Amino acid sequence: MKVTHSKGLHGEVTIPGDKSISHRSVMFGAIAKGTTEITNFLQGADCLSTIGCFRNMGIEIDNTPERILVHGNGLHGLKAPSSVLDMGNSGTTTRLISGILAGQSFTSVLSGDESLNSRPMARIMEPLNSMGAHITSIKGNNCAPLQIDPGTLRGIHYHSKVASAQVKSAILLAGLYADGRTSVTEPVLSRNHTELMLKGFGARVSAVTESDGRATASILPCDELYGQKIVVPGDISSAAYFIAAGLLVPGSEILIKNVGINPTRAGILKVCEDMGADITYLNETSAGGEPTADILVKHGPLKGVTVEGAIIPTLIDEIPMIAVMAAFAEGTTVIKDAAELKVKETNRIDTVTENLKAIGADITPTDDGMIIKGTGMLKGAHINSYLDHRIAMAFAVAGLAAEGETEIGDSQCVDVSYPAFFETLESLK
Ligand code: S3P
């Protein structure tokens, strides 16, 4: 896909449904009793992987453009899959479903694409196995393919070294099948969609955050979950590209509608404000415990900032976009405490560094982040997305603000989270 320098972006964008919330709505609906109706579900490849897995385990799911109906069979209603469960590119599917499968009375095997099968799974195998699960890495490298054999689960209190919603969610889901209370403490609060939504399905979940930032979520086993109506808010991680495009391209003004602004996800907004961005929030409301707003962005100068500490989990997926904004800003941006970037769909410290250098930016990678000296003027180049959707989209936005032409390699990888991304970008020109 080729992207050329833009003279200004104008108009409205309605952002597709949140990926994290879409995954969870299908998963929890599948193990609930009765029908779960989901509107504004994200029809991206990752969430379709989740649907495929539950269909493979006997769950009837009607997928129409208007809504998804998940006909749940209850907590113990999944059937042994007829083949290997295909995770595609989706880390969220793999890690969360492992928590559910750990509590089943059948064996399952999980595998995905090359990127997925090289991502670390010890982070879920270790706590789940200490609950009594039997999860093995078939190749013995702590990566998928994983085999999950039946086990009898007991409640634990797990202290996680990383603030990861995927790890936390896997443990809480296994906790539904355990013999007592299961708790997870993480160093800082990661996205809390699982806690909010599971409570809506009738699970006994509680959450506390200490004054030092440590956060603990707990769950008690229950007899059943019950099907719900879920309205999925727009994905702030997808909105991030249009926020940045509006801020970076001179003359732009974009209204981004219905964006989920849960504080555990909204770190990018705080960073934009710290950079001096012109952002206005309109129509603030909430659905299912998830706050939303329309976001109006206007072009203006940005300045470098330091991004570190507790805010990192709230913007971890937006760091490629923040790095691009930093390259166009005045002054130096330092991103630290973000070593998790190394275990995303690609090593995003490496892929951001390589591609920012290609367009002429001044970037120094570090062990847990990067240092970017804003130069303002960047020049279009060939971008290697390495099939990472967030790299492809962040650098497409860079291409609009850079001089000349930018070519995004393997740009179809945006299908993972935002199939209509390039059409939507085009509609603003
Ligand atoms: C996700 C959690 C985050 C995030 C991922 C989606 C989720 O991963 O990067 O895109 O839906 O729980 P970690 O839990 O590994 O930080």
Task: Please render the helix and strand layout as text.
Layout: E1 2-4, E2 10-14, H1 19-30, E3 32-39, H2 45-56, E4 60-63, E5 68-73, E6 85-88, H3 91-101, E7 108-112, H4 122-130, E8 134-137, E9 146-149, E10 157-159, H5 165-175, E11 182-186, H6 193-200, E12 204-209, E13 215-220, E14 225-226, E15 229-231, H7 236-248, E16 253-260, H8 267-274, E17 278-287, E18 290-298, E19 306-307, H9 319-328, E20 332-335, H10 348-358, E21 362-366, E22 369-373, E23 382-383, H11 389-401, E24 405-408, H12 421-427
Helix pairs in contact: 1-2, 1-3, 1-6, 3-5, 4-5, 7-9, 7-11, 9-11
The chain binds shikimate-3-phosphate (S3P).
Radius of gyration using CA atoms only:
21 Å
Shape descriptor reads: globular
Beta-strand portion reads 25-35%
N-C termini distance: 16 Å
Q: Percent range for helical residues? A: 25-40%
Name the assembly state.
Answer: single chain
Query: Count the strands?
Result: 24
Structural class of the helix and strand makeup?
Answer: alpha/beta
In round numbers, the mean pLDDT is 97
Q: Summarize the main sheet.
A: 5 strands, mixed
Poorly predicted runs are none
The ligands found in this model are: shikimate-3-phosphate
User: How many DSSP H or I helices?
Assistant: 12
Task: Describe the fold and architecture.
By secondary structure, the chain is of the alpha/beta class. It has helices at 19-30, 45-56, 91-101, 122-130, 165-175, 193-200, 236-248, 267-274, 319-328, 348-358, 389-401, 421-427; strands at 2-4, 10-14, 32-39, 60-63, 68-73, 85-88, 108-112, 134-137, 146-149, 157-159, 182-186, 204-209, 215-220, 225-226, 229-231, 253-260, 278-287, 290-298, 306-307, 332-335, 362-366, 369-373, 382-383, 405-408. It contains 12 helices and 24 strands. Strands 3, 4, 5, 14 and 15 form a 5-stranded mixed β-sheet that branches. The chain has a 4-stranded mixed β-sheet with strand order 2-16-18-17. β8 (134-137) and β9 form a beta hairpin. It is globular, with a radius of gyration of 21 Å. The mean pLDDT is 97. Bound molecules: shikimate-3-phosphate. Shikimate-3-phosphate is lined by residues 20, 92, 164-166, 169, 190-191, 316-317, 340.
